[in-house]
Every structure is written in C-alpha cells, then in structure tokens.
C-alpha cells in the first residue's frame, strides 16, 4: 500500500478531530495526540482521509452535578452575620449610633411608652408604706434606671440590672447595668424562674485596676474600695475565674424571640441583612461620588504627523498642575491639545428604588413608619391604626418593666422590713389559713401617661352607660388608671381637712359640694381633650353624697356639684381669691 504525506486539508481535519478528542477527555491537544491510536500515523493516505472525514468514535461521557439545595442559613450573606454576643452587640451599637432610622426607632420604643409614675399600696391604710417606696424610688432615681433598662432592652435585646443593697437601712443604694458581653446566663430547664447569671469574662478595665494595685495614683482608690466592699471579686479577677452573681441583687430583663431562648434578641437583628445591603450600596455610591467629583482626565497633544517629544509632554504636565493652583483655571496651548473627561454620569445603576425598598424594610423590621418618625406619609386614618397597634404593643413592654419594679426592687424591701398583707386566722369552712401563706405588701405603678391612645369617645360612652346603670363606675376608674379605693380615701381626707378649716359648715353641705364626674373631666382640663364641662357633653344626675359621718363615697352617682369654683365646695370662691366663674381649663 502506497504511503505519502497528508495534504493541508486532510491535516486540518485530523487536527480538528484531535481537538474534539481532547475536549471530550478534558485534556490538552498534545496529550490527546499521544493517546490517539498508535497506528494513526502508519495508516495510508486513503485511510487517514477516511478517518478525517468520518471522525473517530468517542466514548460519551456524562457529567453530573449534585442538585443545589437551598437553605437560608447557608447563603453567603448569612455566613457574614455576627455569631457571638460580642459581635452582635458591636453591630447593634454601631448601627444605633450611625443609622438615623435605627437610632430614632430605638429611642422612640424606649421613651414613648414610659412616663413618670407614682406608687400606691392598696393594703396600706395610712399611706406610710407607699411614702417609703416613693422615697426609695427617688433615692435610686428609679425612673432613669428603667429608661436605661428599656434602652438596653431594645438595643441589645436584654438588660442586666445589678442592685447595691444596704443592710443597715434595708433598702437599695443604687442600681447599675452590667455589660452583657462579659456575662453568661444559665437556666434551669425544670424551672422558669431559676436563672443564674455569671461573670464569665472580666472587663479589661477591672483587670487593669486590680493589676495596678492600691498604690496607683489613678486607680488605687477604686482598688481599695473594691477590697472593702467586694474582696471576693478581686480574688476572682486575679485568678481570672468566673464569678456567680447573687440572684437577690441581679436580674435579667430579656426580649426573647421564642420561648426556648436563654439570651435576649435585639429588634435590630431582623434587619441585619438589609443594613448590610445598604452598606454595599453606600460604598458604591461613595465610589460614584468620587468619580463625579474627580473624573478621569485624558489630555492628548500632537498628532500622527507631529508627535510630541518628552519635553513637550513634560511641559504639558507642568502646565496642567499649575492650572489647578491658578484662579483663572486656564491653559494656553496650540491647536493640537485636546482634553477629555470621563465620569460616572449615565453609566451608573439607578438606586432610588433600592433606597425606597431599604427604608421600607427598615420601617417594617423596626415596627415604625414614616408618619411616626417624620409626620409625613399616610392619611390620618392609616396613621391612627398604626398608632393604636403600637400602643397595644407598647403595653406589653411597659408591663415587663412594671413586673421588674415590683418583684426585683420592692419585693425584697417589703420582705426585709416585714411589710406583710394581713392573714385571716379565723376558721373558715373548717379550714385554718396557714401563716406561711403570707404575701408582702407591694406597690402598684400608676403611670402619669396612663393611656397610650386617645380613648375619649370610648370613655364618654362608658360614662353614659354608667349613668344609666349599665356598667359599673369602677371601669371608668380603671380607664383613667385610678384606684377606686385610693380615690375614695383621698376624697374623705379632703372632706375632713375642709371640715377642720370651716367647722361650722354642715357635713351634708360639705358632702354635697363634691364635683360631678363630668365637671372633674371638663373643669380640670384633662388630657382627653375636654375644655370644660360644657365641651365634654356629659350628663350625670346630681345627688348629694352621704356625709363623712354617715359613710364613705361609694360611686359617682352619689356625688354632688362643686360650689362655684371653691375647692370641695365648702367655702365661697371669694374666700380663696378664685374667680367665681369657673369655666374649666384647656386640654393638654
């Protein structure tokens, strides 16, 4: 069989087959040529032409890939989320300090539901215990304490109040908050109340104080104070060991996402991914802004026929640099000079829609809206619905702080001082009440801003129903955040006080001078919007109350009217220097 050299066309076909063979195997063409049949180059020209025309049979290979299983916690954005308590708090505090919506929302949630308050004790007949509780609240600045707790509650998701107890006076000297980054919390799975707080990592500043010792000019006095009041803590810091806190002086106020959480969760955590996306877009916007402010400048001089030499380029460079320092910003050159400015205009991604989406997600995640933060946006009806929803939501938060005040501040004071509720020791149905069932006398918190929503229409309807005997008046007391028994005692106290001022005035006339409920609302100018009894449009029968000697005030139906503006109606208004035409105040 004759042998001869391949032609160009045949060689190209052969190389094409070698390349196909290499691609099917995932190898190079050199490796493919080496793995071709060994007799390929000993074949005749006709055989090679035939193979080049028909090609080689290549074994089919199927490449299979595992299916992509989607999981929300396995995304790239989820991997970069903070994992530890320290990292989470660092992110939370950063966004609180630097993001206007986040910071304002946290401040709103902290302060809006709260107000100053007063403490009453229903079992305290003379009010002495309530007065002591009020003094303790003022001494420790309790209102500021609950503001600090509330801020950490929303910002970090949890607060760790620590109280300094005074064994001599049997009361608290102060309350402070501990840094959650250094604490560990353990929970008894068989008891909802048993929560144990431990200092797991010591604050670097405390370690520095202990390391410097008692003779350091700056921190020595702190070390000496610690040795006097908490020497065991100093020893734990020196040995770098955990310290278990006394549950009587430490507590944990947590915002939990689900029942099984041990640590609290911040409301900011739900928008971490949104804030990360916002940071990415802001970084892109900053780069775009740099391109707008300092666009790329391209200067060319000369042409193909007269190319510039190095000296001409150096002169142009010096001229451009000097132009930036000249007030005229002018360049004088020949006709071959050309300048081009390349910026970011027209080639950037439009982000207005992205910013609107981010703001909306932040509003939803932080439980606020544009109407609340900026007084703009939806109609009054929509904003009112949102406000009512927030009011209901805030009530739970305020009750959490109320429970902390009662059970972690005043419960120990009452037990240490022996303030116990009376125990029934008489036989009742053949059973005697045990003495170990005693309960301490605890205060009730009455907020100055009782209602977080405008319920004036509802209150007016209830008053009309109460006047007609359809509902008890006690419901109205509760709506106004007033204790009925306390109000009756105060009224009796005022009656006795004015009787001592004007002993000649008959008790019946004194009792008949009490205000009606609608006059109290309208004349006092309450925050419900009333500007006088006439504006309140409330109707109530006027009946005289029994005198102080005859009995106590039982309900509003027994109240009479005021005596021409005088306090209690006992003396003429002129005796006190008041105007005789009492028209009421203006609603606040």
Helix fraction by DSSP (H/I, runs of at least 4):
40-55%
Query: Mean pLDDT score, rounded?
Result: 76
Counting helices, strands and paired strands, the structural category is mainly alpha
Largest sheet: 3 strands, antiparallel
Number of strands: 11
Q: Rg, please?
A: 41 Å
Question: What topology, given as strand order, has the largest sheet?
Answer: 5-6-7
Describe this structure in words.
Strands 5-6-7 form a 3-stranded antiparallel beta sheet, with no helix packed on it. The protein has a two-stranded antiparallel ribbon with strand order 1-11. The relative contact order is 0.07. Strand 5 (183-187) and strand 6 (195-199) form a beta hairpin. It has 23 helices and 11 strands. The chain has helices at residues 8-25, 29-35, 45-54, 76-79, 85-98, 100-111, 128-139, 142-155, 204-212, 220-229, 231-239, 272-293, 310-323, 352-365, 370-374, 380-417, 456-467, 474-479, 484-501, 507-512, 517-524, 533-536, 573-576, and strands at 117-120, 158-159, 161-166, 171-177, 183-187, 195-199, 243-244, 253-254, 296-300, 338-342, 444-447. Helix content is 46%, strand content 8%. Among the domains are: 8-54, no CATH class; 454-576, no CATH class. With 588 residues, it is mostly helical.
């Amino acid at each position: 069989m004759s042998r001869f050299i391949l032609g160009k066309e045949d060689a190209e076909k052969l190389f094409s087959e070698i390349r196909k063979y290499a691609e099917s195997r995932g190898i190079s063409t050199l490796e493919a040529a080496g793995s071709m049949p060994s007799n390929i180059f000993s074949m005749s020209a006709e055989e090679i032409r035939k193979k080049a025309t028909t090609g080689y049979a290549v074994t089919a290979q199927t490449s299979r890939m595992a299916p992509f299983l989607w999981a929300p916690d396995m995304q790239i954005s989820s991997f970069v989320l903070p994992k530890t308590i320290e990292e989470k708090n660092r992110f939370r505090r950063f966004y609180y300090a630097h993001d206007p919506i986040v910071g304002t929302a946290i401040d709103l949630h902290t302060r809006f539901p709260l107000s100053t308050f007063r403490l009453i004790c229903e079992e305290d007949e003379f009010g002495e215990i309530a007065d002591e509780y009020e003094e303790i609240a003022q001494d420790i600045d309790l209102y500021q304490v609950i503001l600090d707790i509330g801020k950490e509650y929303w910002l970090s998701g949890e607060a760790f109040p620590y109280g300094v107890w005074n064994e001599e006076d049997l009361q608290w000297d102060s309350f402070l908050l501990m840094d959650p980054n250094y604490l560990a919390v353990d929970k008894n799975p068989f008891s909802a109340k048993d929560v144990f707080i431990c200092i797991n990592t010591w604050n670097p500043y405390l370690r520095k104080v202990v390391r410097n010792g008692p003779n350091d000019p700056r921190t020595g006095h702190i070390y000496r104070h610690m040795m006097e009041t908490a020497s065991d803590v100093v020893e734990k810091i020196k040995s770098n060991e955990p310290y278990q806190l006394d549950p009587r002086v430490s507590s944990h106020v947590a915002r939990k996402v689900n029942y099984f959480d041990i640590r609290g969760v911040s409301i900011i955590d739900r928008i971490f991914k949104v804030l990360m996306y916002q940071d990415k877009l802001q970084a892109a916007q900053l780069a775009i802004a740099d391109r707008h402010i300092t666009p790329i400048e391209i200067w060319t001089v000369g042409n193909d026929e007269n190319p510039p030499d190095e000296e001409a380029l150096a002169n142009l460079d010096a001229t451009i640099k000097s132009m930036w320092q000249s007030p005229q910003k002018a360049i004088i050159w020949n006709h071959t000079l050309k300048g081009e400015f390349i910026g970011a205009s027209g080639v950037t991604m439009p982000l207005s829609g992205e910013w609107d989406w981010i703001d909306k997600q932040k509003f939803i995640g932080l439980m606020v809206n544009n109407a609340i933060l900026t007084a703009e946006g939806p109609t009054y009806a929509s904003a009112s619905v949102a406000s009512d929803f927030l009011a209901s939501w805030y009530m739970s938060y305020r009750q959490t702080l109320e429970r902390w005040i009662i059970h972690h501040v005043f419960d120990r004071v009452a037990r240490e001082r022996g303030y116990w509720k009376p125990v029934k020791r008489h036989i009742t149905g053949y059973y005697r009440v045990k003495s170990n069932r005693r309960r301490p006398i605890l205060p009730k918190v009455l907020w100055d801003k009782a209602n977080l929503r405008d319920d004036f229409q509802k209150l007016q309807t209830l008053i009309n129903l109460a006047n007609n005997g359809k509902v008890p008046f006690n419901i109205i007391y509760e709506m106004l955040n007033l204790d009925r028994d306390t109000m009756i005692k105060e009224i009796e106290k005022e009656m006795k006080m004015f009787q001592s001022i004007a002993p000649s005035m008959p008790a019946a006339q004194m009792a008949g001078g009490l205000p009606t409920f609608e006059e109290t609302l309208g004349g006092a100018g309450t925050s419900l919007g009333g500007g006088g009894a006439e504006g309140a449009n409330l109707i109530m029968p006027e009946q005289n109350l029994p005198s102080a000697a005859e009995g106590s005030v039982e309900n509003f139906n027994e109240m009479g009217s005021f005596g021409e503006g005088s306090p209690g109606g006992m003396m003429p208004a002129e005796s006190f220097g008041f105007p005789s035409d009492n028209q009421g105040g203006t609603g606040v």
